[in-house]
Structure formats: structure tokens, C-alpha cells
Write a structure and sequence with these properties.
alpha+beta, Alpha-D-Glucose-1,6-Bisphosphate, Chain A, domain 4, 7-stranded antiparallel beta sheet, 3 helices, 48% strand
Length: 152
Amino acid sequence: MAEQTSSSIHIEAPAADVMAVIADFPAYPRWAKGVMVAEVRSSFDDDDPAAQGRARDVFFSLDVSPIKDEYTLRYQWEGDRSVTWHLVEGKMLRSLEGAYLLRETAAGATEVTYRLALDVSIPLIGMLKRKGEKILIDTALKGLKKRVETGA
């Protein structure tokens, strides 16, 4: 992964429950700020034990200032331990690589680390780009925690 930003959060739920929310793309517009559409375009076969029939390619429509874009990401799953993704195509985004890394810390609790590196077609100085990544990561982690712990 290129130069990236990362952050972690503690969620009071087992890794399998956290990963189930991460893998439920059609629900993203209900909890992931700025995601207007998240549509699975292709999935892995059920015979791939690491991917467990999960999404391979997902189309997103995103509206989070300053980024408004439509793009497709390709995912790679490692059971309930991690998921990584990269940009297949986008309009404003030139590249986007990310990961959720899950580590169970105690009975029923999981530490989730989100890593993100993106590049947009409009010129941004590195400091602004990192700040934008940090805002996206923090918002996503807080939304994920709320969704997993409260179901809302």
C-alpha cells in the first residue's frame, strides 16, 4: 500500500460480527456517512474459504466533501481477520487502497484498524490529503462501531 493513514477503534463484539457488518455493503448507506449507493457487482464463489461468498467488486456513489465520486473497488478477504481493497475505476479518484484489520482483544471484543491511501485527480498538497483520509477513517470507524454495537 502507498503512503497511508491509519487509525484504530475498540468494538465490543467478536471479529465475526464486525466483519459481517463490513461485508454487508447494501447496508452502508444506512450507517456509512456519505455513501449514497453500495452495490455488489460480483462475488467470490462459495468454495473460497477465505472469502466465504463475499463481494469481490462493489460500486459506490460517495458524497463526502470534498470528494464526490462514483467508483468501483475490488476486495480481497482473509476470513474474519482482514479485508483489503483497491480502486478498479473511478471518476475523481485516481487510486484508493485500504484495509480493515481485525484483532480480537478479549472475549467478545475486537480492535479494528482501518488503513487508507487515496489520490484524487485534483491537485492536493500531502497535508490536506492526509487530513481528508483521517476524517474519512475516523468517520467510518465511528459509524462501524455504532452499527455493530447498537445495530443502528
